[in-house]
Specification:
single chain, mainly alpha, 22 helices, 69% helix, 0% strand, globular
């Protein structure tokens, strides 16, 4: 009875802290900060023009909730609500064995870099939140009766699918989290390996059917952005212009020695002096066609070391370099701060700028933390908390590492799932082994 009363008090405090966190988030960020990506989505909403460059699922959700607060406010409120709900359910899962420790979880919701990014309208943020909420729901209800557990698990699977549809490049990481959602009481490496390929194929089919069957999304060839970036990198390290098309000697020299930066592909698309690259590829009808794909393959086969140098340089920059975190650019003038007249956001930006040089804002630091948590949890993989850590941190490790092959930008938002997994996984790992073992014994008796 005293333990039950302590758990109820902890649950009430967790909900109260999260509710205060949600109110503070709205106070600071509302109506949210638009980025170029989110602005393009909102403009497409007016035309009902679904495309596959940005997720059509995000656009559909935004259209559904837009009447709540026209503009970015509606999708921001959804993001903020799911964010704090995710911290609630994870905390309730931790409170099963450690009620006092669980109170740390909602407090982490205010910690950078998670908090400084939650108000930015990016699908990467909503993706990470959706997956954390999915895992947290299963973790929180594992010892509940079927009437509670089954609906929660169904909601978790829906959130898992939603997150993948927001970020299809998470396909390689998805089976790890799916294995946890399917078997949350313990983690089996053998079972996960056997599940992996069927899960990848099935989830790939889900993306195809949803994007092009349900929404009829226009094929805008987002994968070709990776190819453009790779061709630019290979050109730089092979000291040879490998782009298809017609180029002057001066343009080729600029491509080889002046354009490449391992921070973003859109140097070839939106930034001078190298905008001519995408303009030429589009004018000569190469972008979005098999000709670009063939040129990409030829470049990799002809210059494999240059390709690996480019990819290794990008990945190192992504993991160890300075990552763009909080978005603050004005759409009309990149040198201006979009919210310079909003003291609350400027205060958050000051925190962002002060901590940006630290490991807190390095994708590699969160990757290392997630790897360490997986190693710590491995000995506890036969318990719900160990399985939870391996499910979220394991998928986060795979997700971040896939950017070696598919990454085209080094923004910290691409590691947001790793940030959330590392934060909540750390608190879960702090549970004392003895208390956890006692809790799992009670759980097995009850079931």
């Amino acid at each position: 009875m005293p333990a039950a009363r302590e758990s109820r008090r902890a649950a009430l405090l967790i909900v109260g802290l999260a509710a205060a966190g949600f109110a503070f988030t709205v106070y600071v960020f509302y109506p949210g900060i638009l980025t170029f990506d989110s602005l393009y989505i909102y403009k497409d909403m007016a035309k009902r023009a679904f495309g596959d460059w940005q997720s059509p699922v995000l656009m559909a959700l935004w259209m559904l909730v837009d009447p709540i607060a026209t503009g970015p406010g509606s999708i921001f409120l959804v993001t903020a609500a799911l964010y704090w709900l995710a911290f609630i359910v994870v905390a309730l899962g931790v409170a099963r064995q450690s009620p006092q420790l669980a109170l740390l979880v909602p407090l982490l919701g205010l910690a950078p870099p998670a908090f400084v990014l939650v108000g930015i309208i990016w699908r990467d943020i909503l993706f990470g939140i959706s997956w954390l909420l999915a895992a947290g729901l299963v973790f929180a209800v594992i010892d509940r009766r079927a009437a509670v557990r089954i609906p929660a698990q169904a909601a978790a699977w829906a959130l898992f699918a939603f997150g993948l549809l927001l970020r299809p490049n998470a396909l390689a990481a998805a089976p790890v989290l799916a294995a946890y959602l399917a078997w949350p009481s313990h983690f089996s490496l053998k079972r996960t390996v056997l599940l992996y390929l069927p899960a990848v194929l099935g989830l790939f089919a889900l993306v195809q059917v949803t994007y092009y069957g349900v929404f009829g999304a226009e094929r805008q060839h987002p994968l070709h952005s990776i190819m453009v970036f790779d061709l630019g990198g290979i050109s730089r390290f092979a000291d040879e212009n490998v782009f298809p098309g017609t180029w002057s000697a001066q343009e080729s020299a600029l491509i080889v020695r002046g354009c490449y930066k391992p921070i973003a592909w859109d140097i070839y698309w939106t930034q001078e002096p190298c905008m001519f690259v995408m303009e030429r590829l589009e004018n000569e009808k190469l972008f979005g066609t098999p000709a670009l794909t063939q040129a990409w393959w030829r470049a990799i086969v002809s210059h494999p070391l240059a390709y690996l140098q480019h990819r290794a340089t990008f990945q190192w920059t992504f993991l160890a370099g300075t990552n763009l975190a909080m978005w603050s650019r004005d759409f009309d003038d990149p040198d201006k701060i979009a919210f310079a007249d909003k003291p609350r956001l400027m205060a958050v930006k000051a925190v962002n700028d002060a901590l940006n040089p630290t490991p807190l804002f390095r994708a590699g630091a969160w990757l290392l933390l997630d790897i360490a948590l997986c190693l710590i949890a491995w000995r506890r993989r036969d318990t719900p908390s160990g399985a939870f850590i391996l499910g979220i941190c394991g998928s986060a490790v795979v997700y971040v590492m896939t950017f070696f092959a598919v990454g085209v930008s080094t923004d910290l938002r691409y590691a947001y799932w790793a940030v959330l997994a590392g934060m909540t996984g750390t608190v879960t790992a702090l549970q004392r082994r003895r208390a956890e073992a006692f809790g799992e014994q009670q759980l097995s008796v009850a079931t």
